[in-house]
Automatic annotation (TrEMBL):
Family listed: Belongs to the peptidase M1 family.
Family matches, as Gene3D superfamilies: 2.60.40.1840, 3.30.2010.30, Neutral Protease Domain 2, Peptidase M1, alanyl aminopeptidase, C-terminal domain, tricorn interacting facor f3 domain
This protein's name: Aminopeptidase N
Domain Peptidase M1 alanyl aminopeptidase Ig-like fold: 447-545
Encoding gene, per UniProt annotation: pepN
EC number: 3.4.11.2
Alphabetized UniProt keyword annotations: Aminopeptidase, Hydrolase, Metal-binding, Metalloprotease, Protease, Zinc
Amino acid sequence: MNPSKQVIYRKDYQPPHYWVRSVDLAFLVNQQDTIVKARMVFEQNHEASGNDLFLNGVDLDLIHLAIDGTELPEKAYEKTNQGILLTDLPADFTLTTEVRIFPASNTALEGLYQSGAFFLTQCEAEGFRKITYYPDRPDVLAPFTVTIIADKEKYPVLLSNGNQISSGDLADGRHYTKWLDPHPKPSYLFALVAGTLAHIEQSFTTSEGREVALRIFTEKNNIDACDFAMQSLINSMRWDEERFGLAYDLDEYNIVATDDFNMGAMENKGLNIFNTKYVLAKQDTATDQDFINVEAVIGHEYFHNWTGNRVTCRDWFQLSLKEGLTVFRDQEFTADLQSRAVKRIEDVRYLRAAQFAEDASPMSHSVRPDSYMEINNFYTLTVYEKGAEVVRLYHTLLGEEGFQKGMQLYFKRHDGSAASCNDFRRAMADANDVDLQQFELWYSQNGTPQVYVNEIYDAKAKTHSIEFRQLAPPNHQGDGPWQAMHIPVKLALYDPSGQPLSLNEQGDEQLIYELREAQQILVIRGVEQEPVSSLLQSFSAPVMLFRQITPQQLAFLMKHDRDEFNRWDAAHQMQAQIIMARYKAMLQEKSYSCPDYFLESFRHLLLDQHSDPALIAEALTLPSLKSMTNQLKDVNILLLHEAKEWLVKHIVQSLEVELLSVYNQNFSTEPYAVNSTQVAKRSLKNRCLWYLMQGGKKDMARLAMEQYHQANNYTDRMTALTLITHQQVPGFEDLLGEYFTEWQNNALVINKWLSVQATIPSEDTLHRVKQLMELPVFSLKNPNAVRSLIGAFCGANVTRFHASDGSGYQFLADQVIALDQLNPQIAARLVSLFNDFKQFHSETQEAMREAMQRIHSVQGLSANVFEIVNKALNQA
Ligand code: B3K
Ligand code: ZN
């Protein structure tokens, strides 16, 4: 088998034979090629036995290799297409190398590559080996010195990690800059940028008194859209000092934004590289959600400076050590700055729809995976989002103070080194003197834990008993049997008037009940009347909770629960119940009509004058199909979609007057600002408009047209355009045309235009998508464009992707095959859209399987795509 398609196991981890004590790099950047010279000082690791050293190196033209100044002849080492093996080495030595690379033809966007008028790098996870020969593994940390030399006119900006220590002019119109990053780091955090870029700058003084120059670089035409990102960076730095006591540790913090990036952003030490999507934001081109995303991603990458960079990962199996923890930190940042309840609802909605699905799919893996073929395939929702939930569990169990004590001990023990998930767990346990042995299972067991609840009220004894039973997820993997997990269940009980009951002798009205056994019973005493329980408040653990709950109890919780999250969840469950009931009736060709209590409680939600409008908007947003299909088999996805549409139509027909009045009430005439009050009102207003438009009435279309033309902000404008286009209101093609003419030079804005069209629920959409792919604004080489057009069609246009003639699946297969030649990481993301195929009924499954088989049979498939398709087909 091709060496890049080998499976790597966590259990095979071996410490490195050599440490790198320092690295000096020199880059001679040219348009045609780049020369990379390296000088590395190695020292044997006495705790590992071995005097050989493997240097990773892929697609490099080796020009020269010497040890302690003596050139090595080719026969002195073993060279493959993955690297060089050096043997019989002394305990200490200096290695010098020189290689040539070709960044301009690098379409995988990994290593050094070109974007517009500049060159840049992406090294995580294994891109550094495409730049120079090096032990490219996260547990080898070294201080880096980097010199960049290039033509001054073509490449005026030359950046790398750390602080710039010198710069100057050279002969032949060239110039150089020299950078020192004193903090030892693994190669995946290396970065370099060279080219023509504009920038904005501000200064920040840390709590330790360090003055830091903050800069954001973009191409010149975007420089007016960076101010919000700069403010977000300042907010992040301040927040990390205040909440975590962590301050920045260099004199510069540079951010570079590029249109050509495989993911959102990258936390390279002192030189973050960002997808423009998460930097650029202006009133006329960014939605409220875009602004919030910019703030969150700027925060996320900044927070990595401590959780990821100062303490990094021992090996890639520990990825969640930095990602889960940093997602938790960015979630808390957003919760502290925006609305905590809204943030929690959005995160859980995403987790349940996407991560639960991943955990039930052929790609299911534990938060700390046991094996991988291609590490880039494991930057998953499980590692990130479930990983963040696991970190949140510590916080729930230990409280803010205990959690922060654990964090401090973690930094004290591991600052400047590479650690493991176990190290983190130990720090949390030791700092708080608690036993977190069983907690290990959160890292080692895959699948979503299932908790079944049974409640009994005993009127005579005045007790309310809640029995919890943990069951193994159906797709449990691993050698041993599944074991019960440590699950904190936050709960409250309410009496029939909605008053919270005291749950113990201390009079607590809220409890964290810790499950540790497969079966446990909680008995609450002194309960005068049968109560209604609110379980798993704030979603206190990432589990599926199954309980018998009546619509009346759900309506009660929607009204009385003090936990905002569970109030939303009750609404959500009621909606899911109705859609499922209709779907089941349709399957059996029976009739089912919408119960009055549903409309009544929906009306109550809509007209609630006391709650945050953002929370109301969330409660009015029906569950996604994805979140409902997770637990089902033989799903007829088109029928389920129809059932949901039916409910929507029913809501509009019954509540049109109310929807219209809430729409009007939340129409703001104030000057636009991105603050939580305005964002909340816009979200509720636009949710109402969404419903109104689903009714298909002409006067509602007129309302959307008015909103489109009169809006003073992009959220309102884009919502209107989307609704007008999706409903194919006469004139929508003209609007799309005008939009294109106005924005054709703004890639991000045009990407939205592509997505709007890719998601039109109409028979000719695939044809339209294929036509849009021919436009110069689209390129298979640009990941944002691919995600916006192909990704949106296959991932968000249910009826067209799942069209019964299989055309959607064929299209996806064609695109994956074509993309794999250019950019395997993006191809692998796209092919993952097939991963839920086993949930569907046999015809759909078969058509999806055929498309995957066609991909699988392509010669020379990347390890990225192969790993995913192979798993899916083998487990079918
Ligand atoms: N650490 C990077 C992700 C790298 C992905 C490599 N395929 C961004 C982040 O999580 O902050
Ligand atoms: Zn991250």
